[in-house]
């Protein structure tokens, strides 16, 4: 199906302009004739995504407010075009204001709401558009938008939790490395000058420390350049399909952070699938959308295969039971939901469970990282201090003797 823009005249000779989905221009003309309209012109609709004019990013919080306000206005009986006109005046984000204004014009010209959303893929995700389509088709657009706003709120909260979990250890580890580098590059060379002036043979730990300090001072610039090049190459590899998959696979397995990323993927999968099914999106479409929005290529691959298995008659729980990514609790609860007809309810419970698990994981991660970094600093800084003072203790003993 393609979209065609038409111009026609009604019985009162008024010009009617709109956009219609059809397989051909002839079909559009026939449909217009059935509506007793005189066709003037029919041409393929030109759909252009809104260009970024402000450079100001549209955040999840902006979309939450937009969805919630639009839902409230539709529920109050305000026509969609009028509601979008009101929102275009009061939206604070400059880019979203342009997008909403463009959508109002498109809908006023005869385009459906979900098609108007589809013209702005950089702003509205496939999930957003699919839910809007289901809501518009069922006549429950206000409820679907409210449900979507709730989903986006929980997604934003989950994202903030993960960021807080990763920012703290990153800052602390960076500070630990910076302190160690400062001691080796700035402090140790001062003591080296003192030891050279005093003469004599230095203890082995002190010799090793001075050798490390000399190497770091001499090759510091080369090390920085190497680190920058290595980071660039790693990022370039991660941006490839194979590299992205391998990186996501590593994230699910790596040490302390692996369980956290796994719980995040499971919470996002469950919440998204529950929201889509509850909004009336067909299961096969829902699985495809969930895969694309999972944020992890390993999970996406599993869900793509799951969609194909479901198309062939297999249950979601049966296929997920074979996948190693999903723990037994998840596919068993989904199985109960499929048998009882309460799949979205079970998925919501799974999402709530993993949300709580993420909270606990974030707290434990913070409490685990802190003593590890303190221990690292204590051992490294303590080792540097002891190595520096060993020659001084030796000199003191010789003087005392």
Can you put this structure into words, describing what you see?
With about 400 residues, the chain is mostly helical. The protein has 3 domains: about 1-45; about 60-155, Receptor-associated Protein, CATH 1.20.81; about 160-400, Receptor-associated Protein (Up-down Bundle). It contains 16 helices and 3 strands. The protein has helices at about 25-35, 60-75, 80-90, 95-110, 115-120, 125-140, 140-200, 205-220, 220-240, 240-255, 255-280, 285-295, 295-310, 315-320, 330-340, 345-400; strands spanning about 1-10, 15-20, 40-45. It has a 3-stranded antiparallel sheet, covered by helices on one side. Helix 7 packs across helix 8 and helix 8 packs across helix 16. The longest helix has about 60 residues, at about 140-200. The model is unreliable at about 50-55 (pLDDT under 50).
Indicate the mean pLDDT. Answer: 81
Under CATH at level 1, the class of the largest domain stands as Mainly Alpha
Structural class by SSE content: mainly alpha
CATH homology superfamily of the largest domain: Type II secretion system (T2SS), domain F
The main sheet orders its strands as 2-1-3
Number of domains: 3
- Please tally the helical runs, counting DSSP H or I stretches of 4 or more residues: 16
Largest sheet: 3 strands, antiparallel
Strand content: 5-15%
- The end-to-end distance, rounded to whole angstroms, is 98 Å
What is the CATH topology classification name of the largest domain? Receptor-associated Protein
Gyration radius over CA? 31 Å
Global morphology: elongated
- Number of extended strands: 3
| Residue runs with pLDDT of under 50 for 5 or more positions | 48-55
Name of the CATH architecture of the largest domain = Up-down Bundle
In N-to-C order, the SSE pattern is EEHEHHHHHHHHHHHHHHH
